[in-house]
Amino acid sequence: MNTTPGNPSATLFGTADLRGHTVLVAGAERAARRATARYRAQGAEVIAVATPAGLGQVSAVLGRASLLVAVEDGHPGWKILPALCRERRLLLVREEAAHDSGHVTLVGGGPGSADLVTARGLAALARADVVFYDRLGPYGTVAALAPGAELVDVGKLPGHHKVPQRQIEAMIVEAALAGKSVVRLKGGDPFVFGRGGEEVAACAAAGIPVTVVPGITSAVSVPGSSGIPVTHRGVSRMFTVASGHDPFSEAELKHMAGLGGTIVVLMGVATLPQTVAGLLRHGLDPATPAAIVERGFTDSQRSTVARLDGLVPAAAAAGCASPAVIVIGEVVAVGHDALLSGAVADLAGFPGTAAVSL
């Protein structure tokens, strides 16, 4: 598994409306397959030239082409392309060759906004033959981020997994064994409740190379977008991130209540009553500030703030629903002024609303 690929400055690909334009893609068929698919997806008439010898057969096309894409497939004959482009007054773009063999990249899609995907993640998406994506992360813009790629929705809803995890792993392995460049796009970070470790293990068992591209976890970014820092000097020097998908055990509740610092619960709206009751039962101060931040980094982001002992009725009154991040601790009070002042809109980049009852 490669977590630090050797080319961190990999080319990034923008989107363009190329309808009515002719693009010449120069490179071996397999090496140039992603460039060919991507420019076609952007509306261009794409003429593929697999070898330097083929340039002579498309001389007429050169006169009307807008762009020549040189795919770095290692053939020395392509050295003539810069001079050819100068002569024909053609724009020249160089691109790395697509993976020659099957490869899987786990990409952390961040908290939901496409502009929060890392540069390395965007580059992996642009080169993907197939993308398996979730409902979290930038799922609404996958087609634009991976133009021309096959897109497969394997997202899970609370209590409903339309594609079981083992089947997702089998689909990833099958695509990679077929020689495709596969991206598994997840919300947040692949290794923070993303089952990325299981998918890496499945690929390793099949002998498939895997690269991991980290993402911004919602456990930190979504509270931050509402003005709530998970740590703050003099207030909290630690934070615990837990999955609330299943109810916590008594031992876990006792540990969280007694540890101090900030508690962040992901996927915990359905189990909120059990979580709050258990923390109170094990001695956490009822007056502890708490917040539920829903739909982080979307235009419908909303924060509901209350004392811990009033969080459940406040959530019910507000109709809080997944996806949401629950934050419990004095840091919520630090962000309280931001929630009231309207600074939430500046921090998140979107308008936010707050139901406040501290």
UniProtKB/TrEMBL annotation:
Domain Tetrapyrrole methylase, first and last residues per copy: 104-309
Organism superkingdom: Bacteria
Enzyme Commission number(s) of this protein: 2.1.1.107
Keyword Endoplasmic reticulum attributed: no
Pfam families according to UniProt: TP_methylase (PF00590)
Keywords: Methyltransferase, Porphyrin biosynthesis, S-adenosyl-L-methionine, Transferase
Entry keyword Transport: no
InterPro entries: 4pyrrol_Mease, 4pyrrol_Methylase_sf, 4pyrrole_Mease_sub1, 4pyrrole_Mease_sub2, CobA/CysG_C, Siro_Cobalamin_biosynth
Family matches, as PANTHER family: S-ADENOSYL-L-METHIONINE-DEPENDENT UROPORPHYRINOGEN III METHYLTRANSFERASE, CHLOROPLASTIC, SIROHEME SYNTHASE-RELATED
Name assigned to this protein: uroporphyrinogen-III C-methyltransferase
Organism: Arthrobacter ginkgonis
Lineage: Bacteria, Bacillati, Actinomycetota, Actinomycetes, Micrococcales
